[in-house]
Write a structure and sequence with these properties.
Beta-Lactamase, 5 domains, 12 helices
């Protein structure tokens, strides 16, 4: 490729001389071929066992990145000294010396590298390959342009320098787009094309230790070809499921990045406050001195001017110090609020070695407050076979084995196996002095991969034409799950529902890529109903009859009791409540995040004296989130429309023409009808 393609962050165009360079190109097919390609292209699917084996080694990759990142900060003074001595790549000079002598770059596939990034697309060619852990010593210190234009016949992993530059440019451009707008750090887990095919990377994007205005990437990865026999030479054909998993890992790892931004703001505010207080103390000391001088020479004009000037500066500095302290307190309050908000949505555990496990406790759980202060071994979920004690033990053992250094706010990956299958957890480390705590978010790999991942002993089946789902029916009596066209048993709700099963397990799921998805068909009438003799015609079925039934059942109360409790609840909570059943409407995005957006239901409107139940139509918006005693509770949304059993419509307004027809109250609390701003007499 030529340099003219390097002035933006678009995917680079590979050279024709090597077929591998086509592996990461993303061509845009013509519209007439899109549909054809959709069915002709077959995505490779890696088995769950292969995925898990890869993730086991991936933890070592993450640890390597964190170790090197810490060394960058620990060796700041040494690197700065080298820079002042004229070394244009002190990072490589220092870390190459730190590596053990027996390192063999021809054998060691795992290596950690440091690469320059830029926010300016025009500077892409100037980004340097700073450090390769002795893997590619000939590239260390070279810019992307240097590698492109290198007049050498040597090859790197059997590729020319030009083609290596193509691959490297793609990686750099991709990571440049990940540089955070706010904060000092971004974590990325994903795929990219390298010399031996698709490679899974762990990238830590951060500020340059010597040049705060610059950005670098500390990176390490694994060649996927080491774990599967499937095609890893074409990212377009590579496993979508594995790719989605890495995207979700990235999303979860960066989910609380705003907390780091608040912490950085607090550090800056505290620094400013300390400097302001020091300056104020100095100015006040000068004022005291000038005042004493004036007291000794009350008629000295110069002493009087100095005293007035010092007094003004002392007042200003005191005011600035007070403002700075206020800002620092506000930042501290914001941090405390943010931490409290996160705490209510997760559980914080004590961390220790396997020998210490018996004495480790649950620090705080906003999800299960009954665990607060309990030994981890005693934390259980009533009515569930899910062994939280086993999970936490597995995670801590995993951390102890794979992660040699732990730091505050460090985000790591854990993997473990239970009787229910293979799992991963994204873990956040929290350090308070010598105490180490952790929070985690778990995922069941078997469920995440669903029907699109087979274990090694399973056979692949073709997809349904046009549907994109497998033609399977899944039955699991242990969890009461039925899946048609899907094995996705969990839902990623944006909020925690108290009414769902553990891990938001679903009962029956039907998935299809075509319309209609679910049909409930009822046939009621027959030829006997309408006869030649009009007097004998039966018009009974020529009305509205049910093709589907939504039923809610109470095992505790009669209809009268249900209605009375609803009335009492409305009075206590000062919010109109109606007992009934509804149909919920949800939306799910490409990341499998699900949001409930509203409900349509039928409720008990009234009960007659003879016990007859009359229904009303209720339409609600998305659920409301309430904080009750420090715990987030989801309740039904606000009613936006209601129709009584007598046909009386309740609604806030009607768009009539181009104006809203509504009822408004005056200062005397009397209601008046308005059409827009016009009062209707």
């Amino acid at each position: 490729m030529g340099a003219k393609q390097s002035n933006n962050y678009q995917n680079p165009r590979p050279s024709q001389e090597n077929i591998q360079s086509n592996n990461y190109q993303n061509p845009r097919p013509s519209q007439q071929n899109i549909q054809q390609n959709k069915y002709n292209e077959k995505k490779e699917t890696i088995t769950l066992d292969e995925v898990y084996e890869c993730l086991e080694d991936y933890k070592q990759v993450i640890n390597n990145v964190y170790i090197l990142n810490k060394l960058l900060d620990d060796n700041y003074d040494y690197m700065n000294e080298k820079l002042n001595d004229g070394d244009d790549n002190p990072i490589n000079s220092i870390f190459s010396d730190l590596l053990h002598d027996e390192y063999d770059n021809s054998v060691n596939e795992q290596f950690v590298e440091i690469i320059e990034l830029t926010k300016n697309p025009r500077e892409l060619n100037h980004c340097r390959y700073l450090f390769s852990c002795k893997k590619y010593e000939n590239l260390d210190g070279l810019s992307l342009m240097n590698i492109k234009t290198a007049n050498v016949t040597k090859t790197i992993d059997d590729l020319s320098y030009v083609n290596v530059a193509n691959l490297l440019e793609y990686r750099i451009a991709e990571m440049c787009r990940k540089i955070p707008m706010y904060g000092k750090l971004y974590i990325h887990s994903g795929f990219s094309m390298w010399t031996k095919g698709v490679k899974i990377y762990f990238n830590l994007i951060r500020k340059h230790p010597l040049f705060p205005e610059k950005w670098i990437m500390v990176s390490s990865g694994l060649n996927i070809s080491s774990y599967t026999e499937k095609n890893t030479q074409d990212p377009k054909q590579f496993s979508n499921e594995f790719r989605l998993l890495m995207e979700n890992i990235t999303q979860v790892m960066n989910s609380n990045v705003y907390l780091q931004i608040i912490e950085e703001s607090l550090e800056e505010a505290q620094k400013i406050a300390e400097e302001s207080i020091t300056l104020s103390e100095e100015k006040n000391a000068l004022y005291d001195f000038s005042k004493k001088v004036l007291d000794n020479a009350p008629y000295d004009v110069n002493a009087k001017l100095k005293e007035q000037e010092a007094k003004l500066e002392a007042q200003n500095s005191s005011r600035m110090a007070a403002n700075a302290v206020t800002q620092a307190k506000a930042a501290q309050y914001s941090l405390t609020e943010a931490e409290a908000s996160i705490a209510t949505k997760t559980t914080t555990w004590e961390y220790g070695t396997e020998d210490e496990y018996e004495n480790l406790r649950c620090i705080f759980s906003g999800v299960h407050p009954q665990w607060n202060g309990l030994y981890i071994k005693d934390c259980t979920l009533h009515g569930s076979k899910y062994n939280i004690a086993e999970v936490t033990f597995n995670v801590m053992s995993d951390i102890e084995q794979y992660y040699t250094q732990l730091s505050n706010n460090q985000i790591i990956l854990s993997s473990y196996v239970t009787e229910y299958g293979k799992h991963i957890a994204i873990v956040k480390i929290i350090k308070h002095g010598q105490d180490i705590h952790f929070q985690m978010k778990e995922a069941h790999l078997d469920m995440l991969f669903g029907s699109n991942v087979q274990h090694s002993n399973e056979q692949e089946t073709p997809s349904q034409e046009g549907g994109g789902t497998r033609s399977h029916i899944f039955l699991d009596p242990s969890t009461y799950f039925v899946g048609i066209g899907t094995n996705e048993r969990t839902t990623k709700y944006s909020e925690n529902y108290a009414t769902t099963k553990n891990y938001n397990l679903q009962h029956v799921v039907i998935k299809s890529g075509t319309y209609p998805n679910i049909v409930s068909n009822r046939v009621a009438e027959n030829p006997r109903h309408i006869q030649s003799n009009p007097k004998k015609n039966n018009y009974f079925f020529f009305d509205q009859f049910s093709s589907a039934t939504m039923r809610r059942e109470s095992n505790l109360y009669t209809f009268d009791e249900l209605y009375q409790h609803t009335e009492d609840g409305s009075e206590v909570e000062e919010n109109t409540k109606k007992y009934g059943a509804d149909i919920s409407f949800e939306l799910t995005d490409k990341n499998k995040n699900t949001n409930e957006i509203g409900n349509i239901g039928m409720v008990i409107d009234k009960i007659s004296e003879n016990g007859e139940v009359f229904g009303g139509l209720s339409i609600k918006t998305k659920p409301n989130l309430y904080n009750i005693n420090g715990k987030n509770v989801i309740k039904p949304g606000n009613t936006i429309m209601y129709v009584t059993s007598d046909g009386l419509l309740h609604i806030s307004g009607i768009m009539l023409g181009n104006k809203i027809l509504s009822v408004q109250k005056d200062d005397e609390d009397e209601e008046h009808l308005y059409w827009g701003d016009d009062k209707i007499l």
